[in-house]
Amino acid sequence: MNKRSKLSLCIVAAWSIAACAQAQNLVSLYSTAKNYDATYQSALSQYEANRYKAEQSMAGILPNVNFSTNSSRSLLDYTPDNYLVNPADHSKDVVPFMRYYGTHVASLTAIQPLYRPANYDVYLQGKKQLAQSVAQLVASEQDLLIRLTQAYFDVLTSSDSLKSIKAQKQAVAEQLASAKRNFEVGTATITDSREAEARYDLILAQEIAGENDLRIKKLYLDQLVGIKNVQPSMLKKNAAIESTSPADVDAWVTLSEQAHPSVLNAQLALDIATLEVDKAKSAHLPTLDLQASMAGTRNLDGTATSGTSSLGTHVVGKSVALLMNIPLYQGFATQNRVRETVELESKARYDLEGAKRATAQSTRTAFYNLVSGIGQVKALHAAERSSLLALEANQLGYTVGVRINIDVLNSQSQLYQTQRDLAKAKYDVLVGGLKLKQANGTLKPEDLQSLNELLENANN
Questions:
Q1: 3-state secondary structure of 455
Q2: Cβ atoms within 10 Å of 410's Cβ, excluding its own
């Protein structure tokens, strides 16, 4: 391997390490995921395709210019009937002959539509369809935001749960050792040891399950962003869980009817359907085009009707014309097409109403889930304090002999389970805030920054 190859490998390796080091918070991971996620890239490619498709709709209102040319070479084999009857007659008018002649033709034609209502409706539909693709791309972007944030906090939830299980295992191990010592000196029964051993074995099983769950959650996050061994930054211990703003669910629903991609998409579909009705009705109307053309013909060695001594000719023709087409009868196709588009417009109107209702329902659900989650965080904070006091009281009671070992073990289990539930509730609230904004269509990449500030080493 030469020095240049080694240097290139070093640069690539250093870049990969730097990428892993920098992609530990939500903002940097989102930038990476946008360039890697296949679902989002597919939506982006679809948007680009729709953008070029919308540009095609302008062709119906712009000039149409065509150039054509052809060249031909012909053979004229002339044999008079009199020559076949009396070959001995060699008079001039009965002598057969053979002659080649050629033709070059070139034409340039330009047509400018002057009055074609259907073509203009197609142009307007193209603009609406482009706006639809923008709404679909925004929806895909919001979906990626939620998938990334959910995967990020799923890793943190699983990591915190595993830490709690390990801490509980350590506490149970100490309780088991204490029970064995007390049994050896005769101050406790064998039952205390057996209960501690059973609880310790259960914790070991939970630890194995927790390690596997964390491994799976990390693999999904790695696959989402295209980086191996992503290490998400932990949530700050003093991170504040804010309440919803605005606090009125109807305000969120009102925003959803104005900003949600599915509602915007349905509204644009209704506009397109209305233009389709206009386009169908315009089939009854005349069309008017302006046509300008220029054609040149060059005859080499005369033509089929000219004499053999004729010289070549060069003819150029120019013309300007107005072309009008008036539809008279098309077998009731136009009338039935109008009826069809009217029904499709009605369908699009109902689809819009359905989209508004579905969005309102999902917004209300997300709002109340978030409010409930915030309430759970407050309640679990109180439960954590109560569980800690209960554990301390049971440990003291066990020391003085008024509590048994199972009481201490149950208090430990309750405390650590509460801590796991509290950590999960915090992450659910943070993700729930984004899901509420997704539900009403106002979610933006900038919303990740507020979450990013709640993480340790947020600027890495």
A1: strand
A2: 15
Q: Are 76 and 164 in the same domain?
A: no
Q: Which pLDDT value is given to residue 192?
A: 77
Q: Is residue 22 part of a domain?
A: no
Residue 22: pLDDT band (50, 70, 90) is: very low
Per the confidence metrics, is the pTM higher than 0.90?
Answer: no
Ranking 13-22, 84-93, 262-271, 374-383 by mean pLDDT, the lowest is 13-22
| 91 contacts: CB under 8 Å, gap ≥ 6 | none
279 is a domain residue = yes
Domain end among 326, 358, 378: 326
243: nearest Cα among 348, 371, 155, 128: 371
C-alpha closest to that of 408 among 397, 420, 394: 394
Do 174 and 150 contact (CB within 8 A), yes or no?
no
Which residue's entry shows tokens 């993700």? 431
How is 390-415 classified by DSSP, letter by letter? HHHHHHHHHHHTSS-HHHHHHHHHHH
pLDDT tens for 411-447 read 888 999 999 999 999 999 999 999 999 999 999 999 9
Same domain, 371 and 446: yes
Task: Give residue 97's pLDDT.
Answer: 63
Indicate the helix (H) or strand (E) that contains 336: helix 333-400
Tokens of 228: 């191996």
Contact 236, 339 (CB under 8 A): no
- pLDDT at residue 245 in the model: 73
Domain harbouring 152, CATH code: 1.20.1600.10
Residue 289, beta-bridge partner list? 113, 323
The type of residue at 63 is P
